Amino acid sequence: MTVEAKDMVFKADVNLVDILTEGRFALSAEIIPPRNGAEYVKILGDIGALVRGGAEFLSVTKGAGGSLRGGSLPIAQAVKEKFGKTAVAHFTCRDLLAVEIENQLVDHHYFGIRNILALRGDPPEGQGGWCAREGGLDFAHQLITQIANMNKGVYLVRPNAPAADAPVRRDATDFCIGAAAYPEYPDADDRVRFFKMKVDAGAHFGMTDMLFDPEAYARFMDACAAAGIRIPVLPGTRLLRSKIHMERMLARFKVGVPHWLRAMLPDDDSDVSGAVSRGAEAFLKLVEKLRGYGAPGIHLFVIGDVSGSEYVLSELAWGRKKDKYSLADVREES
Length: 334
What we know:
Layout: H1 16-20, E1 26-31, H2 41-53, E2 57-60, H3 72-81, E3 86-92, H4 98-110, E4 115-119, H5 140-151, E5 176-181, H6 188-201, E6 205-210, H7 214-226, E7 233-237, H8 243-253, H9 259-264, H10 272-292, E8 297-301, H11 306-322
Parallel strand pairs: 1-2, 1-8, 2-3, 3-4, 4-5, 5-6, 6-7, 7-8
Helix pairs in contact: 2-11, 4-5, 5-6, 7-10, 10-11
């Protein structure tokens, strides 16, 4: 009996590039699986809240080596099957051998997961120098190359196979491959060069790390265009509640915040409702500026703030219907 795509148990997901290039400003969010042993029902509730807010797709992070957060694949599957939304599964290659990577990617493909954010993965917090296992991968562009080969139907030779057992072509996967972009990487040349290596390896879209400066995004995109990079790059950011909150984010992610955004934030979170309101105005103004620079959408890093994230997503969703994206006056400020 011949099995066709329509007969598969799990439906294939929508290609993310189709969403990012269809002309509407895409709304999305990134969620983190609960720590091992924590009740997984809460994360399903969080996903439901973000979907109600207006998220059109969600990415699911993958714990790097040493992280105690499993469940990335089944949570991505739940986003697709239970909530009917497109999922982006983070996939990290650090500490994995090429054969392990291929096996795990085949699992993703069988489950209908089609969008993969291909990452090397960070070492556990506090760990010093790192090097790949013998036979492992050192960089994200190598992972992207392996996924791109699977998309061509080229798979690995069996370990310890006879010399005559050459690679054969089998059914090709159809992954949409994402790559991380770092618009504020310290070396201006390397920030584009490293990203171009991933694009040349086969990446179809990019997602930035934490970003609060729309000018930094614009400069990065101009540099990418000059280097011949044409794939859509989705800026990732988050809601800031106060200047104290902002300083914590800057210390953690080593990125800049423009003066106008700093000025809009309250000093602290003492008035929680006021902090959310003023933080939301600053966030929505940031999004408006990113949209003005040609961003295909916004990717919201939730990091535990589900209610605030749901709120700003709902404002953006409402604003898109009204062709108005900000609660605040979005006049340019010096």
